[in-house]
Write a structure and sequence with these properties.
Blueprint lengths: L2 H29 L6 H19 L2 H9 L1 H5 L6 H17 L3 H24 L2 H20 L7 H7 L7 H24 L13 H15 L6 E5 L5 E5 L2 E6 L7 H17 L16 H15 L3 H14 L1 H4 L4 H8 L16 H17 L7 H13 L25 H20 L3 H6 L4 H10 L9 H9 L6 H18 L1
Parallel strand pairs: 1-3
Antiparallel strand pairs: 2-3
Length: about 500
């Protein structure tokens, strides 16, 4: 093999090691570290990130990439080698445009805004958060200014999370959702579903037991996964053979069960990336949208489906005989699929969730192009909640202050949640065609065939191809909200029919 390629690969492997160490520091901070370690940990994390950034954006990497150009042209573009050079080159060009001082300032702004946001949310005090938000937006705008293109500012915000996706493409998808969803929300409102038995109490040790049963059945195993409890549920990967998912529990809800399935979906994507890509920049999910398509698939398309619940519900009844002794599986199915407008995005159902995202997507564009003053955000938020979901926002804690994303400068992130929903159904329709037997497998608690399909058609590629190319490989078509809208219509009709 080409010696220069070997050198590039070696250098990139070290940079990936540093990034994984940085993830480990973050996981440890969330899961194990005593709280007083926080300030020093912030410095440690910044040091590792800076070294990784400096090494990656170095002139030597640029020189190697340059010199490997002819070698790449002689390779099969789909090979691991050609993909590594191509993707590293693209990443390098992008990373080089951002001065290291600005990188540091972004990290610093995020680190100081996070505790300010926690405090402001606790007190429902938007004014106290405003200066931090202003700085977050200013820094984000300076970051965007590093890329001298002619598209709207939001294109560059989006590109960090969904590479190559343009604002107008998101607009086209969201316009269709905005056209179709209000009627579905109204229909669901007219046919209320009883979910009173989901209020618990569900003792936490019993919930742990249930989550463990589901994870094992899905394909979690202790040789390459961990499962821990932390404040903000998430999935971490330190290697394709070291996946760490997390959850949190509340006695008055079974939400942890579904959030655990969600994080499993994220974890499985990383677990099933081709082992040959380990310690390269290609080892990982290709975009947040495709990542979310996987978490939503396990949470909603598997986890809230009737065939799966036929397998699961007897086990739920066994663990919680008092709460579910007189409930049947159809009632349970309707309850966990209930559609009802609510204030908090992370608690929202499958239909209204998208309106929460669209609201944020619209406000973020105005924040970046300056057409809204940040102090007007709470009012603008309230007006859109009224328009899209017909509900009042009683306090900012339950409105504009609910998400942590903006405090960290993550403007452009939210659309990927709904794009993930859309992609999940595109991929799902293809899976249903190719695996007609899926329902009876779920009823038997069999998920290996689905896992294998996902590995073969999506997960194994990692970051070899662009998000758009990867979606076409998995779903057979570019981004299209049609399958998702069909799915939601069918679900709403089913729930309405069942309630009548
Ligand atoms: Zn997720």
């Amino acid at each position: 093999m080409n010696a220069k390629f070997q050198e590039l690969k070696h250098r990139l492997a070290e940079i990936v090691d540093l990034r994984m160490i940085s993830s480990l520091l973050d996981w440890d901070l969330q899961a194990l570290m005593p709280p007083a370690g926080t300030p020093v940990r912030a410095e440690q994390a910044a040091t590792v990130q800076r070294i990784a950034h400096e090494r990656f954006t170095s002139a030597e990497i640029g020189r190697l990439l340059e010199e490997l150009q002819p070698y790449e042209e002689g390779l099969d573009p789909e090979s691991d080698e050609a993909s590594l050079i191509r993707v590293a080159h693209r990443d390098w060009e992008k990373a080089r445009k951002v001065p290291v001082e600005l990188e540091g300032e972004m990290a610093q702004a995020a680190a100081t805004a996070l505790p300010a946001w926690v405090e402001a949310r606790r007190n429902s005090d938007f004014a106290a958060f405003l200066p931090y938000l202003q700085r977050a937006v200013d820094v984000r705008c300076r970051y965007i200014a590093c890329f001298d293109g002619d598209g709207p500012a939001y294109d560059y915000a989006l590109d960090d999370y969904e590479e190559g996706m343009k604002t107008h493409e998101v607009d086209a998808v969201f316009d269709e959702l905005k056209r179709e969803l209000p009627a579905l929300i109204a229909e669901a409102r007219a046919n209320p579903v009883d979910d009173s038995f989901l209020a618990g109490p569900f003792p936490i040790d019993k919930q742990r037991e249930l989550n463990a049963v589901v994870l094992r059945q899905f394909g979690w195993s202790p040789d390459s996964w961990r499962f821990d409890e932390i404040v903000h549920p998430a999935a971490y990967h330190l290697a394709t053979t070291d996946i760490r998912i997390t959850t949190r529990y509340a006695e008055d809800s079974l939400e942890s069960l579904f959030s655990t399935m969600h994080e499993f979906g994220h974890g499985l994507y990383e677990r099933q990336v081709d082992a040959a890509l380990e310690r390269t920049p290609l080892a990982g999910g290709v975009s947040l949208g495709l990542h979310e398509s996987q978490s939503r698939m396990w949470e909603n398309l598997v986890g809230r489906s009737l065939p799966f619940l036929r397998w699961l519900f007897p086990r739920v009844q066994e663990v919680f005989p008092e709460q579910f002794g007189s409930v049947d599986v159809d009632e349970f199915y309707r309850a966990v699929n209930k559609i009802q407008p609510s204030l908090i995005r992370v608690d929202a159902d499958q239909v209204t969730y998208n309106m929460h995202v669209i609201l944020r997507f619209e406000l973020e564009q105005e924040m970046l192009d300056g057409s809204i003053a940040l102090r007007e955000l709470p009012d603008a938020w309230g007006a859109k909640m009224q328009e899209y979901l017909g509900i009042d926002v009683p306090e900012d804690r339950l409105g504009v202050l609910q998400d942590m994303h903006w405090s960290g400068g993550a403007i452009g992130y939210f659309p990927t949640y709904s794009l993930g929903n859309v992609m999940s159904l595109q991929i799902w329709e293809r899976i249903r065609e190719e695996l007609p037997d899926l329902d009876s497998q779920f009823e038997d608690g069999e998920f290996g065939v689905l896992r294998d399909w996902l590995r073969e058609n999506l997960h194994r590629y990692g970051r070899k191809f662009t998000p758009q190319e990867t979606l076409v490989r998995a779903a057979g078509a570019p981004l299209d909200p049609g399958p998702y809208i069909r799915y939601l219509k069918q679900k709403v009709a089913e729930l309405a029919g069942a309630a009548a």
